[in-house]
Amino acid sequence: MYLGFIVTLFSFSDISAFYHDPGLYAPGWIDYLNLQENLTNDLFANYDPTISTVYADIADWEPLGDNPRTIDRWNYTILLYYLKLVEVQEPAEKVSVVLELVERWYDPRLSWNISLYSNVSTIFARQEKVWSPTLSPFGVNEIIDFRDQDFRLISIDFTGYLNDYLSVRVSANCPMDVSRFPFDSQTCQIRFCLPIFNIRQVKILNEIYEGILQEKIIKTMGNSEWKVVSLTNRVEQLKYDDDYGNMDLAVFEITIRRNPLYYIYMIVFPSFVINGISIVGIFLKSADKMSKLNVGLTNIMTMTFILGVMADKIPRTGSIPLLGIYIIINLLIMIIAITVVVLITELRQWAVPRLKLKKSYMSRKLETFLGSPIEYTCAILLEFLTTANFFVMIGFWFEDL
Ligand SMILES: *[C@@H]1O[C@H](CO)[C@@H](O)[C@H](O)[C@H]1NC(C)=O
Ligand SMILES: *[C@@H]1O[C@H](CO)[C@@H](O)[C@H](O)[C@H]1NC(C)=O
Ligand SMILES: *[C@@H]1O[C@H](CO)[C@@H](O)[C@H](O)[C@H]1NC(C)=O
Ligand SMILES: *[C@@H]1O[C@H](CO)[C@@H](O)[C@H](O)[C@H]1NC(C)=O
Predict the structure, then answer these.
(1) Which of 247, 267, 373, 382 could pair covalently with 238 via S-S, beta carbons 3.0-4.6 A apart?
(2) Which pLDDT band holds residue 275 (cuts at 50, 70, 90)?
(3) How confident is the model at residue 56 (pLDDT cuts 50, 70, 90)?
(4) Nearest bound ligand to the CA of residue 118
(5) Pairwise CA distance, residues 263 & 102, whole Å
């Protein structure tokens, strides 16, 4: 029995010293593993991962990409596989996104003839076994690579193309235009470059995985406040006049639109209601002047407080956002209401005796008007202004939809 075991063990010894349960391992699989092992050994026999694969023997004066010694510049592709918006910090003008990226490059030392290896076309290896370029963000605030250094894998294609996968969180600086806040859209760029190599040596390409450009996938990229409306890619060339520091930049551009609902029900609607009621309060006939003033001043304080809430959400730029204009108009309406209430008694004291002297039809009419009708008219006019202000504001929302 022991002998049988040892015989079994040895008959598989070209694979490994362990017994393979035929119920678990198909023979084809074992062949494949063997083959892969042979292939890996052959591929890496003379491979030194510290030696770069980039063709760099190009002089500064040679024209770009037109080099008889190589086919083209060394290609380096960044493929965006998914994007998720994490956070938008308007005051700091920062946008954080999580990116799932695939890097692809070419290393001719790692190609093989598939007919010599029973058509095995791809193998997988640890990234530390091969030379890899270092993707770097350009002009980005912060980048965090979520992968553990020890668990990075790459796939190697028989043609010599290598792919690796990275999951990074990038916090990009992004100038914000809040003049239409809270109905604003922002456009942000996330830029990557390959440092150290110059533009004659490396050509950067970038792509977006087509599957994620579907409407239903793009919808999942935003967060509760921001919706991603578009996602594009391009390669930009960073140019300086001296032609020396030029650099290829892979740019991913996102356009995001704010969901204004929160600001509508937290700021726009309440301030409309508060203003509307305060105007009624100010022009209330039975109230004395002091309590009317109280209503007005409380309202002004509330509006100022609301402005303060808004100020926390926007960068300190020169332009006044729409929401700010809306609140300031509300504030002005309230100031007009207070002014009217304060001055109306003075006006009556000044005008009524003079009108009484004239005794014409017009002056009698004017005298009646200076009674309670003037207050009603002012109240209705100001209520109308408040409502108009509110609907113009809401109009901007529907314009965006
Ligand atoms: C792997 O290489 C060994 C030694 O060269 C050889 O004996 C074996 O047949 C090879 N295996 C396959 C599956 O090619
Ligand atoms: C690099 O990419 C370009 C454009 O896709 C392609 O035409 C060229 O053949 C590639 N060069 C190499 C060396 O792979
Ligand atoms: C690959 O190997 C086969 C078999 O040895 C040979 O006929 C073929 O020419 C090789 N192909 C290349 C591109 O070297
Ligand atoms: C490899 O692929 C070629 C073409 O598809 C086929 O003719 C050949 O039989 C395959 N060889 C093996 C070992 O599977």
Answers:
(1) 247
(2) very high
(3) confident
(4) 4
(5) 38
Q: Tell me the pLDDT tens digit for each residue of 345-400.
A: 888 888 888 888 887 888 888 888 888 888 889 999 999 999 999 999 999 998 87
| Ligand 1 pocket check for 35: Cβ under 6 Å | yes
* Residue nearest (by alpha carbon) to ligand 4 atom 5: 119
Number of residues that this document lists for the chain? 401
262-400 to CATH, choices 3.40.30.120, 3.40.630.30, 1.20.81.30, 1.20.58.390: 1.20.58.390
Quickly name the fold that domain 74-259 has: Acetylcholine Binding Protein; Chain: A, (2.70.170)
Q: Is the pLDDT of residue 6 over 50?
A: no
d(CA 263, CA 323): 9
Give me the chain's average pLDDT, please. 87
Atom of ligand 1 nearest to the CA of 35: 13
